[in-house]
Amino acid sequence: MVKVTVWNENRHEQKDQEVRDVYPEGIHGAIAAFLENEDFEVRTATLDEAEHGLTEEVLNSTDVLLWWGHIAHEEVQDEIVERVKQRVLDGMGLIVLHSGHFSKIFKTLMGTSCDLKWREANEKERIWIVDPSHPIVEGLGEYIELEREEMYGEHFDIPAPDELVMVSWFQGGEVFRSGCTYRRGNGKVFYFRPGHETYPTYYNVEVQKVISNAVKWAKPTNNTKPVYGNAKPLEKLDGMN
Amino acid sequence: MVKVTVWNENRHEQKDQEVRDVYPEGIHGAIAAFLENEDFEVRTATLDEAEHGLTEEVLNSTDVLLWWGHIAHEEVQDEIVERVKQRVLDGMGLIVLHSGHFSKIFKTLMGTSCDLKWREANEKERIWIVDPSHPIVEGLGEYIELEREEMYGEHFDIPAPDELVMVSWFQGGEVFRSGCTYRRGNGKVFYFRPGHETYPTYYNVEVQKVISNAVKWAKPTNNTKPVYGNAKPLEKLDGMN
Amino acid sequence: MVKVTVWNENRHEQKDQEVRDVYPEGIHGAIAAFLENEDFEVRTATLDEAEHGLTEEVLNSTDVLLWWGHIAHEEVQDEIVERVKQRVLDGMGLIVLHSGHFSKIFKTLMGTSCDLKWREANEKERIWIVDPSHPIVEGLGEYIELEREEMYGEHFDIPAPDELVMVSWFQGGEVFRSGCTYRRGNGKVFYFRPGHETYPTYYNVEVQKVISNAVKWAKPTNNTKPVYGNAKPLEKLDGMN
Amino acid sequence: MVKVTVWNENRHEQKDQEVRDVYPEGIHGAIAAFLENEDFEVRTATLDEAEHGLTEEVLNSTDVLLWWGHIAHEEVQDEIVERVKQRVLDGMGLIVLHSGHFSKIFKTLMGTSCDLKWREANEKERIWIVDPSHPIVEGLGEYIELEREEMYGEHFDIPAPDELVMVSWFQGGEVFRSGCTYRRGNGKVFYFRPGHETYPTYYNVEVQKVISNAVKWAKPTNNTKPVYGNAKPLEKLDGMN
To answer: Where is each ThuA-like domain found (chains A, B, C, D) (predicted)?
Structure first.
């Protein structure tokens, strides 16, 4: 059974009644709720817990970590970011959602600014699937339509994705690479764009389907980890050395 | 349950005692035997059967097709090649083994010559895993060592793989991109290098593990197929048109 | 000096006054005209010439071939397609424009159906640059806006591009991967979406800039061609063979 | 004229007579010497200079930066690393050589550990070209052979390269992805493996050719930089917002 930890900054929910109205159990609560319907073992963790809820013990027993953050990226301690990064390189899957594009963990794994255009204007987003063969889009149609979302526009300053799975169309005239996979070390990373805190995006069953599929896709590959450092020759070096 | 069809040219087995000694049930028989130990439904098909054993009915009920051919690529009818190609574009997985690099189906899906260097000199091959996060290498160590194999060397005239999973070292001084994934339409394609007919390569448990993993990886993604052709606008075009 | 051949089907221009009004010298004439302002040696060739204007001699002295076709793809002889393909694999650059997505040469190099959604509705296209580091977008801004174009929409059934340079937004609600690079053999391939025959797209200076840049990018790499076939070992095989 | 800065840690040269014997003008001196034969404007900079020789002024007038470091990666100030990174994201090319795989600048741009296997055993390296179409291998043959080099072996913990250009074979039984391109922001990055301080690798004319080609490939693309942050809609949002 895949062990999932849903991490949320959980600050909008404490400060803004509007957000609390949409996500009374927090964004993490809403995400955990639909993941529990799958064959996953689901926990949540939030910024204000000790060690942000991401102790060594929690991370070591996490197969896939989901990350939602927005207004408090800077409050995430560098030590915890480093710990999460090591776990990804060691094999843990990581799914970064929406405004998590600017999280320390995503930026450090990407090596770029991860900057983009944005606009809050209640506009329509249509997320087109450009790789229908990918397991992350299992069970979906040709696109996902969200009546109201925040706009994110190109240029999105990320490395070229290993696989580009989805591209968004926005009513205001922009496009965006919305579903991107990366491999880092032994771990798999998926960035998925939608999910502004004032919209009920995480109740959309197709968005939920993408996230559930991504958890399955991102679970660790169980094999012998590579060995690094000084290495003896595997072949005889013929006395020339 | 994933439905697997193992296709083999099955000509060496009929002509060469040496090959029959290694693969008394044919290469297809040896591959089918270890795949049957997995949770797969396994059939075989060979060149000399009617329609090469690849009728519409067989292909339509195949999730993943494995392909081994060598000396009779030209005897495979173009019509059957086209049929297999359409099934791949429609979602069927395809695993091309060893000398299948020169099969019509692989060449037509790649768009290149698929040519390479080769040598039969009983030399050692060491297949290094360069993407340890990939599900195709689940359960493996850092490399697979084959005491005797045919050499295939670069330049291998293929499109850059979507994912490069394995690279071979050969005793005689060459390297080769030995595990390559591609997506074509709704289907997934995996090329895996080892498997010369005079060596017991398909009895190697690590080689078997790669092929079993590849079957799981290549199975079709179950979603709505894209619609092509003339399309009505999804947004109002404001009378300007 | 880069030697460029602009190939055009040149049928719309003969049949439709509307197209002739836009491109009195043919689409090939319009493209050749702006390429001649660069440091290129430019020729044109069309379908109705002997061997479609693509003799061995012409191709052997072509560094980069541009391809525009639409209503007569099937009239292009298979033998000429094969000849062009061999030249690409041998190093010649190929730039496929707009409806050339359905040309025999593009489909055979891609290995997929190259199908897509389309609509002629005089709508706006905005081509966003998603890879600002790429030489093909030298001298451009963040996007190219075309007031009226034919719509092409996803899913575009191509292999994942080696490099995705541009993505289009369409007024009617679709997106499209509009600038895609591929490497095939020793040759480079660029697909560029815009250019419907009834619009003055090839007079747009930014579209011209992309095509000129693409010619420079696609020119052959001058090196020793790989050798294929049976190969002697480069290292001593220690008597074990 | 492309402005090149060759950065070298320059510590082995001060401490080890053996290295000084091979590179009397320092590794930076040897690299600058052959680059000056090209149409480049070449400078050098070293660790022990003020700001490691990488002032804002120097970086702002550098098109392509080469980086060689080994035993003093930790002495490179984080502030300077950040400055170099910003210049890369802004468009400057970066060529990372050999043991620079463990430099702070390469690790921060990659997002992974960049770890590998290594061995100093005077063994043979054969660097195979796997993408003959790439401008970085212009003028080369099928491989570069180095009689004596340090071994670097897989797994090399890097993101999958955007383009894999070269793969090394080592006598002792390993392979390595030796020529790797990446795009980060507006900048291009090339990693090139060979160049251990005790071997005359940078006098090898084919190695020199690769580095010169890489400088040309990595030079900045001159275009409008993307704009990030809050963005007004480009299309009318129909009063719904």
So the answer is: 3-218
In a domain, D83, yes or no: yes
d(CA B32, CA B10): 14
Report if pTM > 0.80: yes
Q: Which of A162, A164, A156, A152 is nearest to A201 (CA)?
A: A152
Q: What is the pLDDT of residue D238?
A: 73
- For A176-222, what is each residue's pLDDT tens digit? 999 999 999 999 999 999 999 999 999 999 999 999 999 999 999 99
Q: Are B176 and B153 in contact (CB under 8 A)?
A: yes
Q: Is B148 in CB contact (< 8 Å) with chain D? A: no
- Nearest by CB to A126, from C129, C130, C173: name it: C173
What CATH number does the domain containing D143 carry? 3.40.50.880
Range of the domain at D146: 3-218
Q: Do B123 and C155 touch (CB under 8 A)?
A: no
B140 Cβ under 8 Å from any chain D Cβ? no
Pairwise CB contact (< 8 Å): D138 & C91: no
> Could you tell me if the ipTM is greater than 0.90?
yes
Q: B145 lies in a domain?
A: yes
Q: Which two three-digit tokens encode residue D69?
A: 């470091």
How many structural domains are present in chain A? 1
> C182 in contact with B at a CB cutoff of 8 Å?
yes
Q: For residue C238, what pLDDT band results from cuts at 50, 70 and 90?
A: confident
Average pLDDT for runs of 10 along chain D of length 241? 98 96 98 97 98 98 98 98 98 98 98 98 98 98 98 98 98 98 98 98 98 98 94 84 46
Q: Does C235 fall in a domain?
A: no
Is residue B165 domain-resident?
A: yes
Nearest to D175 among B132, B163, B175 (CB): B175
Nearest to B140 among A163, A224, A234 (CB): A224
Tokens 């990350």 locate to: A67
Q: State the alpha helices, DSSP H only, in chain A.
A: 12-15, 17-22, 26-35, 56-60, 78-89, 104-110, 205-218
